[in-house]
Amino acid sequence: MRQSKLFVPTLKESPADAEIASHRLLVRAGFLRKVASGIYELLPLGARVVRKIEGIVREEMNAAGAQEVVLPIMQPRELWEESGRWEKYGPEMMRLKDRAERDFGLGPTAEEVITDLVRTNASSWRDLPINLYQIGDKFRDEVRPRFGLLRGREFLMKDGYSFDRDEEGMRRSYQAMYDAYGRVFTRCGCSWRAVEADTGIIGGDVSHEFMAPAEVGEDDIAWCEDCDYAANVTLAAYRRAEPPWGEGRAPEKVHTPEQRTIAEVSSFLGMEPERFIKCLMFLVEDEPVAVLVPGDREAGEIKLERVLGTGEFRLFGEEDWERFPEYLQGFVGPVGLRASRIIADEALRGAGGMACGANERDYHLTGVDEGRDFTVSFFEDVTLARDGDACPRCGGAMRVEAGIEVGQVFQLGLKYSEPMRCLYDDENGESRPMVMGTYGIGITRVMAAVIEQHHDERGMIWPLAIAPAHLHVLPLNYERENRRAAAEKLYESCLERGLEALLDDREESAGVKFADADLIGIPYRAVIGKGYDEDGSVELQVRETGEKTRMSAEALLDLLAERLGR
Ligand code: ATP
Ligand code: MG
């Protein structure tokens, strides 16, 4: 590639809507442009990176026994009715009608289409297992498209699906994909952590997310320093400390005028927030339910959903406080409380000498003991783990850090095959539903995640395996005949040896060339300048470390080939 001919419109300024490094740098370096909110174009250098990530994914999928197919983006409503997701997916699914007014959805994922394909074309135990994948655009009308490629409305995903005879087969297919995912991210130069995850709208029982640790990540992951426990914070368990507070003598009513929040009352009474019982009122399928958590902890929505067995609940809003005046906003507490259910976090089992709302305006109680002064319907894990909590498996210290979800794998079981009647005949001629798994990698999201992990203030730093080119050939003062000839020769040798080079054949100043090269972030650079005039050497520069070494062009090519494992 010759830079003078390459369509790589770099920008001096960052786009106003770019909040994070990957978005900013991809646009500035001329890899990416926006067409509409969450919808992007990849320019030549950007497209090269995406194709390389795709290539790695394809190799690893094929090696793990999956077969590539190409499925339609436009999917008929009827299939989505069969799984119940035409309703359930809600406004996140983009929908359209054809000229005959038939409904279609633009695929946010493809469980329905693939299940239909398999049920109509495979029927015997001999046909199984089947493992199919595709790499194609997905559409999701996200509530908040943002962060460039990290959360788009049209984006590139690898989605795969396995069909097995039984649970054991499904677990085998799942493990093969799980292992392949690890290899994909490692080869892309993306550091990652696999964590236990919620199954959400996709469904199923067991799931792992592959998280790329990065400050801008929208997820939080909890992981143990001492063992391999790791989970999304939304459902990470943690070991509760023994309640350290001895029994209170008896509840004592204290006047707390206008002190409603835990922070207000705890500073008013001079008691630590963890000695309070926070009593949260939820409306669950139209019934008030009380959830008790320690004053310094937050209840987790996904944990609550699991405990309540429904997603149909909300924290009391103004209208709920008005509708149920027996609960006094700011002064609700468990002593004498009436609610259809009172659920308490595990941490409150046996807690004594606690403070809580008195169910009376401007009053709280102190010296309250669980068991003696109030009882609950059941104890559950409903609060979020945080940095420093004890690991549920080994008791070691857990860390919590932000991460970007780059992939997710699910054991679906019969979630789609049962309603959609994706059946096969077993060895005894008995009809059984196939047992499924589903697996996704956000290809364009991986590209952004890698930059979040690899950049500096000057630009991007591509890992060799997914870089838009292996070598940036940088002749300084290109108008000088000897340097120009040397650069041309090096560039041609690269082509001959199958190494990808970008030749900066522009008559720009050294400053401009270096600044652009830093921004674009090709991992290796061959500078042809003064050294070349002196002794015919070129200077190899490593983008990541800034390391510089003078060597012959031949030695540089050998070194590069070696780094590429060729
Ligand atoms: P998120 O929680 O970030 O919305 P998800 O869990 O809904 O993602 P999946 O259904 O698991 O996403 O999709 C598989 C993969 O596709 C994700 O792991 C992610 O890498 C990628 N992905 C999902 N949504 C987007 C998006 N809006 N933009 C870019 N990539 C996405
Ligand atoms: Mg996911």
Question: How would you characterize the overall build of this protein?
Answer:
- This protein is of the alpha+beta class and 566 residues long.
- The chain has three domains: 21-213 and 410-451, Bira Bifunctional Protein, Domain 2 (BirA Bifunctional Protein, domain 2, 2-Layer Sandwich), CATH 3.30.930; 252-380, YbaK/aminoacyl-tRNA synthetase-associated domain (YbaK protein), CATH 3.90.960; 469-563, Rossmann fold (3-Layer(aba) Sandwich), CATH 3.40.50.800.
- 26% of the residues lie in helices and 28% in strands.
- It has 14 helices and 31 strands.
- The strands form eight sheets. Strands 3, 7, 8, 9, 10, 11, 12, 21 and 24 form a nine-stranded mixed beta sheet that branches. Strands 16-14-15-17-20 form a five-stranded mixed beta sheet, with helices on one face.
- The chain is globular.
- The model has no long low-confidence stretch (mean pLDDT 95).
- The structure holds adenosine-5'-triphosphate and magnesium ion.
- Adenosine-5'-triphosphate is lined by residues 109, 140, 142, 151-152, 155, 157, 202, 405-408, 440, 442, 444-445.
